[in-house]
Amino acid sequence: MILKDMNGFDFERVDKDVAILPVGSIERHGDHLPLGTDSELPEHIARRAAELTSAIVLPTIYYGSCHAMRGFPGTFDIDSEILFKYIECVLEEAWRNGIRLVVVLNGHGGNATPIQMAARQATSRTGLSVAVLDWWKDLGTGKKDLFSSPGHAGEDETSAMLAVDESKVNIYLAGRHEVTYPEVKVYSKKIDERLYEIALTGDAKKATKEKGEELISAAVEDLAKIVADLRNVLEL
Ligand SMILES: [Zn+2]
After folding, report:
1. What is the CATH number of domain 3-229?
2. d(CA 77, CA 93)
């Protein structure tokens, strides 16, 4: 069930214990992937998993917090405090509308901290439960070996986007920029500029639709299982 497409009559009567909230970004992904990649991928996974679990899919939050790719045309960087408060409002409104568990399905690394802060605030103020997943880290983990050169707009993300909607990928513009990330989390413009010299890490040329389909299908199954497990734990 897709919240934005439901009418009020149906919304009042439907099982709305569990909802999935995709959160993404409008951000440069090399030259070949759509700017909305980080939003499209979790939205697609959420919609397919919701069909298996009778969860409601909340409208995707398309704008995210994008410090590292800020210098590239096409990136919209939302202040992380505003994003935190905005997501907190959405979570609290979900609770007020009868939703008891929100699974936040994040598609963009820069959103992780604002989402965690929002989840903490909303759950301390209401009875809502919130699960937070970074889809590329927490779902489809059994398929990671398919990709020898993953990264931002790299082999894995490009494969995933080819699987979700290949008409939005210009594979002829796919690039390669293999880098080593620092072993610890470092906040540094200097390092970001090196890592994201072409707004891409890894080798997007190695991407295939078939590998993407395997990854996305595994992610959908994993998410459906997580929702079912949480329903049990929370008795929903
Ligand atoms: Zn991305």
Report:
1. 3.40.50.10310
2. 24
